[in-house]
Amino acid sequence: MSTRMRVLAAFVAFLFAALFTRLWFLQVLAAEEYRERAESNRVRIIPEPAPRGRILDSNGRVLVDNRRSIQVTVNRRRVENAEELLFRLSEVLDVPVEDLASRYEDPTYLPYQPVPVADDVPEKEVAYLVAHRREFPGVSYRVVGVREHVYGALAAHALGYLGEINEDELKDPAFNDYRPGDEVGRGGVEQHYEEFLRGREGYRSIQVDAQGRSGQVLGSREPEPGNDLYLSIDLGLQTAAEDSLAQGIRAANGVVTSDGRTLNAKAGAILALDPDTGHVLAMASYPDYNPKIFADGLSAKEWRQLNREDSNYPLNNRAIQGQYPAASTFKPFVAAAAVKAGMAGPEEYFPCPPTFEVPGDTSGTVFGNWHTGNDGFLSLGGSLERSCDTIYYQFGLDFWRERDERGDLMQRQLRKWGFGRPTGIDMPFEVEGRVPDSEWKQRVHELYPKYFPEGLWLPGDNINMSIGQGDLLVTPLQLAGAYAAIANGGTLYRPEIGLRVEEPDGTLLKAVVPREIRKIAMSKKARDQIMAGLRAAVQGDGGTARTAFAGYPQPLAGKTGTAEVTVDGEETTHSWFAALAPADEPEVVIVAIVEEGGHGSEVAAPIVRRVLEQYFGFTASQFHIGVATD
Amino acid sequence: MALEVAPTRRWLGEVAPIRHLDPTLIFVSIGLTIYGLLMVYSATHRALASFGDDPGFYLKKQLAFMMLGLIVLVFSSVLDYRLVKVYAPFIFGICGFLLFLVLTPLGSETAGAQRWLTLFGFQFQPSEITKLALIAMLAAYLSEIRGPVRIDHVWRATGLTLIPMLLVAIQPDIGTSMMFAVILVTMLIVSGAKAKQIGILALAALIALFAAFRLGVVQEYQIERLTGFLDPANDPLRAGYNRAQAEIAIGAGGLFGTGYGSGTQTNLDFVPEQHTDFIFTVVGEEFGFVGSVLLLSMYGILLWRGFRVAMLSKDTFGSLLALGIVGMLAFQVFVNVGMTVGIMPITGIPLPFLSYGGTALLTNFLAVGLLLNVHMRRFK
Asked: Do B264 and A42 touch (CB under 8 A)?
C-alpha cells in the first residue's frame, strides 16, 4: 500500500512541478513580453462592418440588398435558470420559446461565446431589455448586417447565399484578410463575385481605462462598402420562367396521361440565354429554397432538410449541376456532325423505317424508332421535324465504321458544341457532363469491371449516342449554349450571368464582355436545313411539338426530347424542350427539363411556351399537358 | 502539572476523537477559501458596480457558502467514517438517481448542458457530490478485496464508475466525466492493481472511445475543443482566444503581480469567467509568480496532509477514501491551472476552494471533513 501511495505522491509532485515550470516561464522568463501584450490589450479595436454590394438585374432592379438587424444574444454562462429566462424572453420578443431554446442550445458555440437567439428584434424591445437588464442576466444585443433577398426565393440558385467562413478557407491565402466568423458567398454569383461584392471592413481603435470605459479614439478607418453587381438576368423573364416551371411540374405530378402512364414530376430546370452574347437572361431550378433561412441562421434540422433525398435536394442548381441524357434534343448536333463528316448531304433524303438493325449483326438486336409507323424518306430537316431515330442510328453506325481511319470523329465534333466539359459560366460547382468514347469505355471497364463488363466501343454505343442516349450526359446549360450557337450561326459563347460591376458611386469597375469559345464550322446549307427542321418540329404538320404550340402567334424553332432513364430501378423519362425565338432572328434561347416529366412535348414544351408568351407579351395560354411525342 | 494533565489526556484520548484533529488541514482549507473570496471580489466588483448591482454580490454569496461549508465540515467529521463504508452503496445509489433526475425535465441547464437540480429553491449540481460518493463506493469495494487484485475486480470497479461517468457525459460535461475516470485509475493503482491490468483497462477505454466516435456519440467539435489547445493558432472555435487572454493576464503579472484589484486584464473583462473557471488568472495577474506559488504551496500542504491521513489510517477503507480525495483534488488543481497556463485543454473544471460556486465549495469542505474524520479515528 505505501509503495503505491508513493507512486501516487510522486506523480502528483510531477504534475505540480509541471505547473511550477510553466508559471516560471510565463511570469519570470517571458513576463516582459506578456506585459507588452497586456499593454496593447488596453486598446480595443471595434470593427465596423462594411455593407456588402447589392445585386441587381439588367434593368437595375435590386434583387439582393442589405439591411441592419438587431440580434439578441445570450451568454449561457451567466444564465442560472435558462428555462425561465427563455420563457420571459419569449414574452418580450414575441418569439416561440421552442425557437429560442433550439438556438440557445446550439452546441457549436463555446460556453463563453454569446449565442444569438433572435434576429430582427425591434428597437423598442431591445430598449426594454436594456432597461431591465438585471432581470435578463447574460442577455445582450448586437447590430449585424443581413442579406436581404428582395424577391424571396427568386433566382435563389443563381444568386447564392452567405455562410460563415470555414476552417479550410481561413488557411487558404485567397482569404487572407478574413477572420473567423466572417461571412463569404456560397454558391451562385455571391461566391463567384465575392472579391467585388465584399467591402473592406473599417474599425475604430479606442483607448480603454482601467474601469473598461472607453475614452480617446486612437485611430479609425471608414468601412468601404462593396461594389454593386448587375446581372444579365431580367426580373420579368426570371419570374415567368420560375412560375411556369413550378406550375408545369406541379401540374405534371401524379397526372395520368392518355396512354395510361402516371407522371411523377418532382424537379426540373429552365434557362434562357441571349444567343448573341451568351448572357443568361433567366436561370431557375426546381425545387428551390428561400435564402432567408441562411440569413436568419440555419438550424441543423433545416440543413438536414435541405440535403435530404425526399426533399429532392433543393440546394442543387439543376441548370448547371443536373446531368441528363440529351435524348432527341441532341439530334441537330449529330446532324451537323454527319454533314461535316460527309455522311449526309444537306439536300439528301434518308429512309425512316420503324426499326433498324446493324447489317451482319447476328445477335438480333433491333433498334426501334419512337413510333411504329414508317415515315418514308425524309430530308435532314424532316428528320428533326419528326424526330426520326432510325435515320440517326444510321449516322451513328457510319461514324463507327470509319473509326479506324477517323477515330472518335463523332465525339470530337460534338465536343466542339461545348458538350463534355464545363461551359465556364461565372458560377461555382458547374459539372462537365460526359461525351463517352472508346477510351472512356475502356477506362471505366478497367476501373469497374462489375458494372461495365464490356470494354470495347461497339456499334450500339455510337447508335445510342446518335439519339442522345447511351452514356451521354449533358447539363441544361450546355444544351442551351449549343442551341444558342445554332441560333447565332455557329458561335459558341461562354455563358455569363454577370453583366457589370459598379462602384457604390456608380463608376464602372468591370464589364463582363461576351467571350467566344470558338466558331463552329457549319455550312449555310446545313444550318438552313437544321433551322428549317427545328421550325417544322414546332409548326410543321408532322412536328413533335405541334400540338403543344397550337395557336402560338410567332414563327418559332424548337426541339423536343424524351430522355430514357432509370430512377430507383424504374424506367422513366425526363421531358426536354429547347426553343429558339423568334425563328427568323432568334433573340432568346430557352431550354427546359422536367425530371420524370414524361415526353418532351407533354410537360417541358408547354412550360417553355408559357415563358415565351410572357417574354413577348402574348396572351398567356392555359397550361395543359401536351400529347406524347418523342 | 503532569499529574493534572494525564487524566485529561486520557479522557480526551479515550472518549473523544476530537483530540486528534488535524488543525493544519482546517487552516489550509479555510485559507484557500479566503484567498478565493479575495479573488472573486477582485474579479467581479467592478463589473457588478458598472451594471448598478451590489459590488459585493458574489463575495457575499460565496461567504455564505463558506459558513455553510464549515457546518458541513463539522458534521462530516463527527460521525464515524466507517458508517460511510456501510452506507456507501446507498449514497452512491442516491447520487446516481439524482444524476438521472438532472437529465429529466426536473433538471435545469446552463451553457447548453443539463447540470443542475433545484431542490427546495436551491440549485445544486449532483455531479460534484457524486465524485465523493464514487470515491466512497470504490473505497468500500476495493478495501474488501482479499489477496491480489484480479482483472474481474478491475472490471467491477470500472462498471461502478461507468454509471456516473455516462450519466454526466450525457449532460454533457466531459470534464467532470473524465474526473470520474481519474478517480477510478487512482484508486485502482493505490489498491494494488498491476500495470498490466491498468493497460488492459486503458486499451478497452480507447476502443470504446473509438467506437463512440465512429457511432457519432462523440461529436467532432468536442474532440476539437479538447485538442484545440495543442495548436491555439488553428483553433476553429476560438477557444484559443480565451486561452491566449488567460496566458497574457498571467504572464503580465510577472514576479510580484500588479497588486490587488489593479489587474488590467482582469478588470477589463478580457478574460472570460474570471470568477469561476478562470479564477487563477486573477491570482496570476494580481499576485504574480509569488502569489501563484503561494497558492500552489497551499494546495501542496493540503495534499501532503491528505497523504499523511492515508498513511496513518488504521484500515484500508480509510486509506483508500483519503487517497481518492487527494487524487481528485490534485487532478482538479492541475487540470484547472493547466488550462489557464495553456498546457491542458479547456474543460470547465473549477479550481477547488477558489472558484465561485456553492456546490463545489460544499463538496470540497465535505471532502476535507472526511479526511479529518479518518485522521481523528486513527487509533480506535
From this structure: yes
8-state DSSP, A566: E
Do A364 and A216 fall into the same domain? no
Report how far residue A561's alpha carbon sits from residue A579's, in angstroms, rounded to the nearest whole number: 12
Strand pairing report for A491-494 and A515-519: antiparallel
Q: Please judge whether A8 and B326 are an interchain contact, meaning their C-beta atoms are less than 8 angstroms apart.
A: yes
Convert A355-386 to b/e letters by CB count within 10 Å (16 or more is b): ebebeeeeeeeebebbeeeebeebbbbbbbbb
Contact A184, A163 (CB under 8 A): yes
Contact A600, A248 (CB under 8 A): no
Verify whether the Cβ–Cβ distance B53 to A134 is below 8 Å.
yes
CA distance, residue B68 to nearest chain A CA (Å)? 21
Q: How far is it, in rounded angstroms, from Cα B177 to Cα B167?
A: 8
Say which DSSP state A226 is in.
P
Q: Would the CB atoms of A26 and B284 count as touching at under 8 Å?
A: yes
CA distance between the termini of chain B: 27
Using 70 as the pLDDT threshold, list the residues of chain B that sit under it. 1-19, 47, 50-53, 106-123, 216-243, 262-273, 380
User: Could you give the C-alpha distances from A500 to A275, A425, A428, in angstroms and in order?
Assistant: 18, 15, 18
Please give the full DSSP string across A330-386, using - where no structure is assigned.
Answer: GHHHHHHHHHHTTSS-TT-EEE--SEE--TT--S---EEPSSSS---EEEHHHHHHT
Assigned domain for A21 exists: no
pLDDT in tens, A289-313: 998 888 766 666 777 888 888 888 8
Sequence-ordered alpha helix ranges (H) in B16-150: 23-50, 57-78, 81-103, 126-143
Cβ partners under 8 Å of residue A412, min gap 6 = none
Interface membership of B167 toward A (CB under 8 Å)? no
Helix (H) or strand (E) holding B303: helix B279-312
**Residue contact B323–A5, C-beta within 8 A:** yes
CA distance A34 to chain B (A): 5
A42–B112: do the CB atoms touch at under 8 Å? no
Q: Which residue of A has its CA nearest to B308?
A: A5
Contact B112 A109 (CB under 8 A): yes
Chain A CA closest to residue B43:
A211
Domain ranges of chain B: 21-78+224-380, 89-218
Q: Which one of A492, A519, A546 terminates a domain? A: A519
Residues spanned by the domain of A424: 327-519
Residues A107 and A224 in one domain: yes
Taking CA atoms, A534 is separated from A130, A423, A540, in Å, by: 69, 24, 9
Q: At what angle do helices A524-539 and A476-487 cross, to 10 degrees?
A: 120
pTM for the complete prediction?
0.63
Distance from CA of A559 to the nearest CA of B (A): 50
Q: Are the beta carbons of A115 and A36 closer than 8 angstroms? A: no
Residue B139 cell numbers, joined: 473505497
B217 shares contact with chain A (CB less than 8 Å): no
Count of other CB atoms within 10 angstroms of residue A1: 15
- Contacts with B245 from chain A: Cβ below 8 Å: 41
Contacts of A15 in chain B (CB under 8 A): 330-331, 334
Q: What is the least distance, in Å, from the CA of B172 to any CA of chain A? A: 10
DSSP, collapsed to helix, strand or coil, labels residue A481 as: helix
Say what the ipTM of the complex is: 0.87
Among A519, A534, A549, identify where a domain stops. Answer: A519
Q: Are B190 and A15 an interchain contact pair (Cβ–Cβ within 8 Å)? A: no
Q: Do B348 and A111 touch (CB under 8 A)?
A: yes
Q: Chain A residue with minimal CA distance to B323? A: A5
- The predicted-structure confidence for A470-484, as pLDDT tens digits, reads as follows 999 999 999 999 999
Mutation target vs B (from A27, A79, A109; most B CBs, 10 A cutoff): A27
